[in-house]
Amino acid sequence: MIEMTVAGIALDASNRKTPIVLLKDGTGRRALPIWIGDNEARAILMALENHRVPRPLTHDLLGNILKTCDVLLERIVIHSLQDNTYYAILSLRQGETVKEVDARPSDAIALALRCDCPIWVMESVVADASIPVDRDADEEERQAFREFLDSIRPEDFSQQGRGIEDSSTS
């Protein structure tokens, strides 16, 4: 397994501006793009920006339930890619008991960010779906990409007028 971190959220310009969460490996040489729904993109961005809301949203609520029940989210694992759909599990520990729960990667990532737990991806998934990151890219291009990622906000994913439904392909 390869530990990965969230590099940010991007919009797929070729696909009706569908959000993509970008995971990167520790070396920064590979990125794993996962197409996600608007709500999950908003939830991930809110966690990345430490944005707090007056009342808990779904992923906040689930994190609160885990904490209240003394359940630790040890890690999430994106374990397979089948027919362009990623599959993940939540690894939960309560005392000596460990259980795995099926989850969409987008929801698992949003929860992992809130619970400060690691994101792991199976080597086979990285081999099949990752894209190389050009480490020799011009610094100007890297800076422009960083600025683009920094400019994206949760409100950019408003569903009004977009005609995009919540996708279960993540």
TrEMBL record:
Residues 1-133 form the BFN domain. It holds the Pfam family BFN_dom. SUPFAM superfamilies: Hypothetical protein TM0160. This is Bifunctional nuclease family protein. It comes from Candidatus Synechococcus calcipolaris G9. The lineage of its organism: Bacteria, Bacillati, Cyanobacteriota, Cyanophyceae, Synechococcales.
